[in-house]
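Field: COMPLEX_INPUT
Field: COMPONENT_COUNT = two
Field: RESIDUE_TOTAL = 311
Field: MODE = joint
Values follow.
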Amino acid sequence: MRARVYVSLKKSVLDPQGKTIHHSLQNIGFQQITEVRQGKFFEIDFASELTREEVQAEVEKIARDVLTNPVIEEFSYRIE
Amino acid sequence: MKFGVLMFPGSNCEHDAYHAIRKVLRQPAEFIWHQSTDLKDCQAIIVPGGFSYGDYLRTGAIARFSPVMGAVRRFADRGGLVLGICNGFQILLESGLLPGAMLRNRGLKYVCRQVSIRVENARTPFTGLAGEGDVWNIPIGHMEGNYTLDTDAFQRLERNRQVVFRYCTPHGEITADSNPNGSAANVAGICNPRGNVLGMIPHPERASEPLLGSEDGVRLFQSMIQSRSQV
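Field: COMPLEX_OUTPUT
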């Protein structure tokens, strides 16, 4: 099974990279964009004998303890 | 007093710290490899600057899981002196030994220059020989020094007088212009509630000899030594 984990800065934290990308996109004509947030993306492959629930528990623990700093970041994921 | 200087893959200020302790302070020092859990009876631990593990994932995020950091945590819990400089500060934040996190610098640029910092709390083992309000001339060099913490926790930090250094003008005024990286309330260094763990973004080891343009950093190391000689 493969987990895809998305990490981004919390909404309450200023994302200057996202802001810079947003301004650049506006400058080249993409006027309809209201916000850009930049984040990180991880693909994690698990051994096939694990159940979906086991993978889910592991992914949440990995994302919480390692992939994010909870002071400034949040995550979402999907398993396929 | 014997100092231990940690070495992670990607550390690059460990020799500077070792030099300052041995040659300037004339104290014994030993390097401690990140795989070790033996702190070699050191009475103070320096977590040096650099780019531990290439800054992969987040600055300090991977170094936190090194075997040596478990030993450092137990050492700190017993009241041992731990000084994290720059990337070392970031490692202490990721380890939870100090509260908060680092964001990329305001302006998204690596900042490398001489700055002024003001001693905000002279009653720590790291600042005992300084006067409150003293201004130190000291270099910085970092990409992630934009300290942040949620509002309630930040108020606790201020109330407990855990802010030890703030960026300031050469005359000691705390202004927006003297803040090189966007750090909350100009924070340049903080300690834990007990005061035995200090994290700072500026480099005292790079301000320890006249040749380097400033000797202000020496007072920090001397304070550490004195704090333990009184015990």
